[in-house]
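FIELD: query
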Amino acid sequence: MRRDAWRPLVVLVGLVVAGALLGVLWSQLVWTPPPGTVQGGQWFPLDERALSLQTRGTSSYVLVAAVGGLLLGVLAALVGTRRELLTLLAVVLGGAVAAYVMWQVGTWLGPADPVAVAADAPDGTSVPGALTVAGATPFLTLPAAALAGLAAVFFVSPDAGRDKSAPQAPPAR
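FIELD: result
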């Protein structure tokens, strides 16, 4: 086993850990919960602004996942040198798991489901909306952005994965 075989594993684990950190960033710093109120055991957004904030969970997830995934892909290319195919596999798998972890951590840290809270709350209680992602497509953002970052480094620097100490073939005459 070569001494640099650990690099793709570091890429995989690093992406998953980064997914958790991106989930914290998404829920605590980027997203704003829509304000709502309880009437008759049901949750209602306060106004039109609150209605527009409900869709921002998905858009802010995509934004954080795209920027984070791109940076993680570049970092993976730099860490995963000399093992390009294993690094590619680690980025695909790690990116998919990181997207799931980001979503789980973000929704766990965000406000509780307002419908469930409203069922037991008295009328007039202020309850923030929940952090949600609509549809499955946003979950492709992080792995796709990570692959784009990885590919960019591999294309821009064709020697990124080459071992500089390995003997090189003589130039053709």
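FIELD: remark
The two ends are 36 Å apart (CA to CA).
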